Amino acid sequence: MRLVGAKIPRVEDRRILTGRGHYIDDVQLPFMLHSSFLRSPLAHGRINSIDVTEARRAPGVVAVYTGEDMKALAGPIKPVIPTGPAPEYFPLVTDKVLFVGDLVAMVVAESRAQAEDACELIEVDYDPLPAVVDYETALDPSVPPIFSDLESNVLVTRHLEGGDVDAAFKEADRVIEVELSQHRVADVPMETRGVVADYDDDSGQLTVHSATQSPQGVRIQLASTLDHPINKLVVLTQDVGGSFGLKINIFREDFCVCVASKQIGRPVKWIEDRNEHMIASGHAREEKILAQVAVSDAGDVLGLKAELTLDQGSYPGLPFGAAIFPSLIDVLLPGPYKVKGYSCDSKVITTNKCVYVAYRGPWAIETWARERLLDIVAHELGLDPAEIRRRNYLEGAEGDQLITGRSVSGITSRETLDRALALIDYEEVRSQQQVARNEGRCVGVGFATFLEAAPGPPEMRLGGGMFAGEQATVKLEADGRVTIITAQSPHGQGHETTLAQVVADEMGVSMDQVQVVYGDTRLTPFSIVGTGGSRAATWATGAVLVNARKVKEKVLAIAGAQLEVSPEDLEISEGIITPKGVPSKAISLAQIARQATLGPASLPPGTDANLESNERFLGEGITGSGWSGGTHACVVEVDLGTGAVKIVRYVVIEDCGRVINPGVVAGQIRGGVAQGIGQVFYERAAYDKEGNFLAGTFMDYLLPTAAEIPTIEIEYVESDPEGEIGFRGVGEGGIIVAPAALTNAIEDALLPFGAKITEMYLPPAKVLELAGIIEE
Amino acid sequence: MTMDMELTVNGSAYQVSADPRRTLADFLREDLRLTGTHLGCEHGVCGACTVMVDGSAVRSCLMLAVQADGCDVMTIEGLERDGQLHPLQESLRDCHSFQCGFCTPGFVMTALAMIEEGSAPASEEELRENLAGNLCRCTGYQSIVEGVIEAVRRTTDQSASAQGAVEKRVS
Questions:
Q1: Record: contact A190-B137, CB cut-off 8 A
Q2: How far apart are CA A24 and CA B99, in angstroms?
Q3: What is the mean pLDDT of chain A?
Q4: Kind plus residue range of the DSSP H or E element containing B59
Q5: How far is A166 from chain B (nearest CA, A)?
Q6: Cα of A261 to nearest chain B Cα, Å
Q7: Which residues pair with A157 in a beta bridge?
Q8: Is A646's Cβ below 8 Å from some Cβ in B?
Q9: What is residue A395's three-state secondary structure?
């Protein structure tokens, strides 16, 4: 193995550093039209009338569509993967607007400016309706459901139990009850959404250029909603400027743009502006957990009862809605701890807010809530937060399971905590904290442990339904070069590099001989999520690895027959096949590839000229626990004058198995931590009581900059380093655990003031409230 | 109505007519098809559209094309020479500075202006402040900071200020 494990420079970087990346707004087609949407100014309201006469007459306008126009051409929209009661709705609203930013009308014009100008000329008369904005209103049975064809604003309920929860609570010395809430934030990729649809009337082919995580997900949902033959629907994706879960979705705008292209017979483009993006693309994370923790006075966590409420906003997401997420959250909430009894009741509610979408680690509240609860319990019992974790960790022994029944044999939670505390020099930090307190300064230390099911243990992989398995193609081309076709659709993860590293090693060729193909549904295999769910490290890598092995077997069978050597005694290096230890006898991959392509009949009998393999990888050969995981620890200092929090030190101990490319892995971890920092201190997708959105620009929705994010130190615990397929996903751990480590550190700093953090969002004013310096 | 103007972009001279309302960003992207300059917010916060105008980093979404009349404009497409990456580009590649690449042109042009002005930061903290006008959502910035420090090291004569930055570098 030469390339796997090395910090190989990324294949992608030459084009992105020279301005030759090809993003959705760079798609330019002959005779292309541009579109713009009129959006609702109200959170909830009935449309009495809509007048598009003036807009239709405006300069450059080619078409204007109202909700009724569009309803005749597409929909109703049904998620291809149902996850709960689905209301009937259409690409543009037909009767009621359901959130500020809802889609009322579409204008198609020769230029974007003309389309935007014409939107201003559309007259809409609304009757405002009371907006459902908060949990309490949504749960009030006297409030009419916002979807008139559903019975209630509670869409889904779910119950999960593990162990004997009543017995666990009976055994306890005390029960601690806390409600923990995390606020609505947004994914905010630097590239907004966009789509270009190009319909060819002769062939009936609809070609859709989509900035997506999942071209095949877009294709299957478009075909279904547009009632378009799927074999005449092509989705193409090139560079995508970030996503973080948002662009797994298929959006109502996508349907409209496709319909317009089919109707008009010209390519139609839509590029979202940043204000639209903040208001209407998607929001995430708005959830709360009411928890009761049953503990012994000695610090044994015996039982946990939880009630989870998730606010999905208005429309369900596509191809699957937010109702899927409680089933991830409730399984993981008890985490790697020896709880004896557990129950969780979940509700998904609907409100007059933007659509809830996946955001990197969409189940993340389980980590924050659990690791917050552990610190709250420790403080109540007078224990050190490290001590309560060490006392309760599952050790990862053979047969160990989460209380929810998932195997955790081989996890390294304790090891990562011990290493994190050693790295930050925990005892020294504690003594410095005392010195600081004596000087009137406010220093705190916090840490938290997470598990990331990437890919998860065998029972989660095989029970993973649509997420189980991945197909890929590896082929030896006529000149001896190698092509990989992956179902992944990268948007920053560097798969063109990492997949090539793995296959180059396996096939015995150099990196520059390997080409990674993605983002073309004519070639790429089906995957509903594409690049998402931290799947690439195990599933995509496993898929290309097993297929590379198949191709290599076929090649060595041919070479063995020609060299009169047993295939097991052959090795490939730099594209040359030689018997081990006999370098003088050699044949090149290129020779075999050429012969198999141009003279297949001349191959030795019993060998296969098809030097391509596209088997579906179902997890065979995955070694280790199946869990990524680790511990983050940080030291903070709170300025009691301003409420600002300085992150003095931040360390990550990560166990994601074998690291394919340290540059890529560290980037995934640090990027996630930075988003976690943003979520705690800066970012909030805020609404007022009437459902007006308050964070529509980058002056209101604050992203952290280089000045706010500290150096993030990373060490790896490479459990199972020699495993056959021992690579595990690392996309989401950083963001799911960082808010817990940070809020634990801040509470630790503010303990002398009796602070107890139950809401994740901690802008300076909130920090000063917690310190008792200002009132709420 | 359009206005006639002359400008140089990446070393090529242009005599063009531009709509007075057209931003420099739209002019570069749509009229010259220099799509390396990206639009992330169109209100001057994210910095993705940063280009160099007469040696200074400017946000091309906040500048009108006609304001560049008589100016020397450089975009991300202008750094590579004869297939050879600029040392800044090489350093950023070697440090795995970027991921999705959308913010990349803006960071590169901001850093290039800083390096070409000879105003290498005295410390990592100062460099982070200098880069704080550009937003990246993927990386957590550390890799970008490392890449720029490496570029400063490669492009300067180990001046005292660059040395200071290098010494503070966390590898």
A1: yes
A2: 17
A3: 96
A4: strand B56-59
A5: 44
A6: 22
A7: A347
A8: no
A9: coil
The pair of three-digit structure tokens given for residue A371, joined into one six-digit string: 């690791």
What pLDDT does B171 receive? 36
Which domains are present in chain A? 30-129+188-281 (3.90.1170.50), 287-459+622-770 (3.30.365.10), 469-617 (3.30.365.10)
Closest CB to A7: pick one of B45, B96, B140.
B96
Chain A residues touching B38 at Cβ < 8 A = 23, 25, 190-191, 241
Q: pLDDT grade, residue A461 (50/70/90)? A: confident
Q: What residue type is assigned to position A143 of the chain?
A: V
Report phi then psi at A727, rounded to 5. -90, 135
- Please state whether beta strands A341-349 and A154-163 pair in parallel, antiparallel, or not at all (unpaired): antiparallel
What is the model's pLDDT at position A463? Answer: 56
Q: Confidence band (pLDDT; 50, 70, 90) for B166?
A: very low
pLDDT of residue A1: 57
97-136 of B, contacting A, C-beta below 8 A? 98-105, 108, 127-129, 131-136
Chain A within 8 Å of B91 (Cβ-Cβ)? no
The answer to whether residue A237 neighbours chain B at the CB level (below 8 Å) is no
Residues 136 to 165 of B: which have CB under 8 A from any A CB?
136-145
ipTM of the complex: 0.96
Q: Order the strands of the A287-295 sheet from edge to edge.
A: A154-163, A341-349, A301-311, A287-295, A174-182
Q: How far apart are the C-alpha atoms of A154 and A131, rounded to whole Å? A: 15
Closest Cβ opposite residue B89 in set A18, A697, A706: A18
Total residues found in chain B within this entry:
171
pLDDT, one tens digit per residue, over A391-440 is 999 999 999 999 999 999 999 999 999 999 999 999 999 999 999 999 99
Distance CA A423, CA A425 (A): 5
B62 CB near a chain A CB, below 8 Å?
no
Give one word for B81, left, alpha or beta, with left for phi > 0 and alpha for psi -120 to 50. Answer: beta
Going along chain B from its start, the domains and CATH numbers come out as: 3-78 (3.10.20.30), 87-167 (1.10.150.120)
Residue B122 to chain A, least CA–CA distance (Å): 15
